[in-house]
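Dear colleague,

Following up on Tuesday's group meeting, I ran the structure prediction for the two-component complex that the binding team flagged. I've pasted the input sequences exactly as they went in, so you can double-check that nothing got truncated or mislabelled along the way. The structure tokens for the whole assembly follow below. Feel free to forward this to whoever is handling the docking comparison.

Inputs:
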Amino acid sequence: MHYLAWWRGTQPLVDIEGGEKLDVRISVSPNQEEAIRSTILSSQVGGTSLLEFSLFALPLDTQAVYRIILMVPLGALLLVILRNVVGVTTFGTFMPILIALAFRETQLTWGLILFSAVVAVGLLVRFYLEHLRLLLVPRLAAVLVTVILIMLAISIVTHKLGLERGLSVALFPMVILTMTIERMCIVWEERGPRVALQQGLGSLLMAALAYVVMTVPYLDHLLFVFPELLLVILAMMLLLGRYSGFRLLELIRFRALARET
Amino acid sequence: MWLALAHALNARGVLGINRRNAEFTLRYNPRRLYPLVDDKLATKRLAEQAGIATPALYGVIEHEHQIRDLGSMLSSYEDFVIKPAHGSGGDGILVITGRRGHRYRKANGHLLAQDEVDHHVSNILSGLYSLGGAPDKALIEACVHFDPVFEPISYQGVPDIRIIVFLGVPVMAMVRLPTRLSDGKANLHQGAIGVGIDLAQGKTLTGVWNNEIIYEHPDTEAPIAGVALPRWEELLLLAARCYELTGLGYQGVDFVLDARVGPLILELNARPGLNIQIANRRGLLACLRQVEHERCAHWSLNERVQYAKAAFGVSTSV
């Protein structure tokens, strides 16, 4: 059991005059930066400080940006494993990472709901546009505008309903959403709805997985304090780049061949 | 359980995508040679210079404004195929088998209006089917009238023959049969049947449809196995020649057998798929390793084909 002293002395913590029902609350939040700074400072024996050339020397808002950026390689590593060792396919190589970044703001459940809503409505509009026989780039631009309109509508409706989480839909990467809708529509037409939904759900699942990995507080802390860990991630990627064994899903695909003698 | 499965597949010499990329396509196919096979028009010219026949070219659409004249350009042809020059995996290929009034009949019997065909060509030009979405060309080719040997075992559309050639030696082959499901196209992931071929005799083995082993064609119910391919020796020689033609060490050569003109090269592929192993019910890796060890650089074309027939035929193989 640990105790933390809040107040010391003979005087009371607060005094009240002309009022009653006194209520005192103390909020505490840990400040890691200061803790780390003082740890490093206290362990230093003079000389120039490496700290001056670390992430902590940056302005606070830049630090906040790097806190997010440093998690991207982790998501990319997960993606490499899922694609080359497991064998999952997604719409667009890095799409799940960018969606996972957006999930940081929306939280997982809301993120999944909002993503599905935007893509579903976007697909409906995209199917309608098919009838107009538009050229590719104007069609993509039209879908992009539609995506923004959908995001706008979701924000306004959820705000009116008092669901503030819905506002964070604005942080979804709209170009990525547009490309996802376009690719999904093509796969739908060429290979059928089953394959399209399968790949769509696969991408969503990978985004959710990437989100879970990229928001582990322990990993977040480690990568921010020791950004050199990125070199370890880099090394793992180079190793995986030379992995020539079977992919997990290939084992299923070729299993008929294993049975024969 | 997973490990046991991986072990069994390794023992059978099955090639996975990672190994194909790392040890075969990346090692034996120099990147600078890819444009030769990625652009179907370039492949066509290359083959024709070497005296190898390809389906007749009716026209090339390169610019959006040319689409306005597409109708009149096609008016003299009863049937044709429209394909993207940089397409992959059979995506974007439109097979027109006839006309009905002002409309075109697709391989599966659906009718298309002129503006629907125009829109398809426009999509091709915009790069919808090309790698990375780069602007593309649309080729209009003759629709092949395939050899009657395939009549009982194909449903709408043209069956094609894929031969994998490694360092100039044919190592494995299959026939791809279109089905109702595949909409006249011969790509396995679109629902076509893959049928293994005995390299020594050019006879079909069993078929694979959606990863299932089958003995009869699902639409025509004719037996698939034991069909002897005409001019098999000629096909093997043509396939082996493609090594000198492109310089790619590991490639897939796609043929169609025309009833009148014989074997035509449809396209070459620098990253041929691995389903051919399921169709033949044997692993590719063992064959490739064998060629890596035993092949001599000075072998003539004929020696390579004879080696292939002796080493990789079903009755003759180890």
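Chain A has a mean pLDDT of 84.

Cheers,
M.
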